[in-house]
Amino acid sequence: MRWGVICVWLICEAAVLRGQSQEISRLKAQLPRIKDSTQYVDILNRLSVLYLPQNLDTCLLYTNAARSIADRQHYLRGQAGGWMNQGNYYALRSNSFLSYRSYLHALRAYEKLGDSAAVCQALANMAIYYKYIGQQAAAVQYMQQAMHKSRSVHNDSLYATVLVSYYFVHEDDSLHADSVQWALAKVRSLANQYHDERTQLKCGLYEANERIKKGDAAGAEKQLLQIIQQAAANGYTYLAMYASAQLAGYKGYFKQPDSLQYKVSMVQYGVAGGYWELILPMTTALYTYYTQHGQPAAAARYSHLMLSILEKEQAARTQGELDYMAYYQQNGRLNALQLQHHLQQAKLDKKRLENRKRQYLVGGMILSLVLVMLLLTFFYYAYKRSRENGIRLTEKYREISEKNTLLQTHDDFKNKLISLIAHDFRMPLVNILEIMNFLQEHSLGPEEAASLLTGVERSSQNTLHTFDSILRWINSQLSGFVYAPEPCHVQELVNIALQSLTDVISEKQVQVNVRIPGNVCVLAECEMLQFVHRNFIHNALKFSPRHGSIYVTAAVDEGQVTITVTDEGAGIPEHLLPHLFEYHADRPRKGPQQGAGLALIICRDFMNMMKGSVQAANSGSRGAALSYTLPQVECTDPSTTS
């Protein structure tokens, strides 16, 4: 269990890398495009760290590749990272000597580079090594150095890593009980602050251990089950393996019967991640259990697994670090396991022979087989009928959906129509009623009355034009509408639209600048186009300051004409700009933008029918620009167009 705690700490060292699966995919995609060898080595070392909690064999593959290139290029930082990753690998391979030697090389390299953060991590690794071999004084010394450097680096992720090692070094020291609890709480706080899922999971393992010490076995079990589920779902294979082993240990200690399933889970996660040496004791325990309980098939499976683990362990050790006695003992264990494997295989062969004899009793089950066939036939026809009913229900659902869509379209049309009529007819009629009240009260002179009546006439004509445009829009929304385009003289139509807005222009004293060549014509329906002109210009007048300027310009590009109306107002709010020409059922029904917004929606509908488009943008530092684009055609006589 102690070596497992060390390995959890080593996995925590890589916890600064978040979004593991996405990070791995991104780095792998970058490798083929990297030309700089030092950057290539850095990515290989980072991939090795990311694969440490997932798959040891892949971790070693990237570590060896990074070290090989770094050695050829004499790239010291790459060599240091390779040594650090190799130390982590051998630690998970239960080879403490090679792990210590690799950490020592990494520490010396990082000291030459002056990398305080990496030196701090290497010192913490050395403290863990001395703790494991029983030299507490050396472990505390290295731990003090790591804590001192971590405070000067000002890196919260590094500080959390060092605090985890501090917890491990002083866990059994009663004099540091309070500081150990503080370190664990601080790690949890930092992990939650930065949403570091991997560190949260590892912190949960230690918290479960503390719960056991306090006698809260149920709470520890619940927490470990959550960790297993979350770690397995997010690819943290080692953490799922260690949590299963920890839970199996607690279950075994309290003599609970379900400890076996967590032992099996621990071995399965270990096999998936390639942590062979760490699962060997549990594999041996499972083999012994199944052998004692008369389950030869399961015992043979774990016997084969032990054999495979020992073969991999033997292949991982170098010839110079394996003395004769260790080699002889290893071969003896291997031969013994092979013999056990053959014995179990013989038992399985005997079991198969017995099963083959039982097959002769199948003849008495023919009647039952016939009954099963009849039941299957019945279920088949029942399934067929259910499938047909499902198809019919799907068709009915599609019809209902189409009708709902049609009803929604009609409802949107009704809402737009009511809002538009309320906007375009209310104000002119109110003005007419006010003028009529003035006339009835005889409070106006003849000249003022004549002027107002002229205004009433002009307002009534504009209202009539608007009503005709609305009727045309309503007709376009109904089925059977036929669009009949013709050449439209843009300058002539804009001048007519300005005449209808003379009162508003005079009231605000706005200067309107029309910069449209006389030979610009577009293919459109003139009444629809004139509705767009009136609304674009009216919108510009509405939001222009007094004594401001409005510009109506034309641009021709590859057979397309773009007419733009620009004002000097405050501009369109950024949150409304992308949706200015869109209709939503939850659109506000009051406010300065409501009526104009619906009129712009109708302008968009008209442009869509005329094979054109509308655009809206803010022009420079102030003002808004509304524009439309239509196909250009050769002009005919303007008088016929108007």
Q: CATH homologous superfamily of the domain at 1-196 - what is it?
A: Tetratricopeptide repeat domain
CATH A-level architecture of the domain at 1-196: Alpha Horseshoe
Low-pLDDT parts are 1-18, 322-328, 589-595, 638-642
Radius of gyration: 41 Å
Using DSSP, what is the number of strands?
7
CATH class of the domain at 1-196: Mainly Alpha
CATH topology category name of the domain at 1-196: Serine Threonine Protein Phosphatase 5, Tetratricopeptide repeat
Main sheet overview: 7 strands, mixed
Characterization of this structure:
- With 642 residues, this protein is α+β, with helices and mostly antiparallel strands.
- Helix content is 71%, strand content 7%.
- Among the domains are: 1-196, Serine Threonine Protein Phosphatase 5, Tetratricopeptide repeat (Alpha Horseshoe); 483-641, Histidine kinase-like ATPase, C-terminal domain (Heat Shock Protein 90).
- The protein has helices at residues 2-13, 20-30, 37-51, 56-73, 76-92, 96-113, 116-132, 136-153, 156-169, 177-193, 197-213, 217-233, 237-253, 259-273, 276-292, 296-316, 324-358, 366-440, 446-477, 490-500, 502-508, 526-543, 594-609, 638-641; strands at residues 486-489, 511-515, 521-524, 549-557, 560-566, 613-618, 624-633.
- Helix 3 (37-51) packs antiparallel against helix 4 (56-73), helix 4 (56-73) runs antiparallel to helix 5 (76-92) and helix 11 runs antiparallel to helix 12.
- The model is unreliable at 1-18, 322-328, 589-595 and 638-642 (pLDDT under 50).
- Pfam families: HATPase_c.
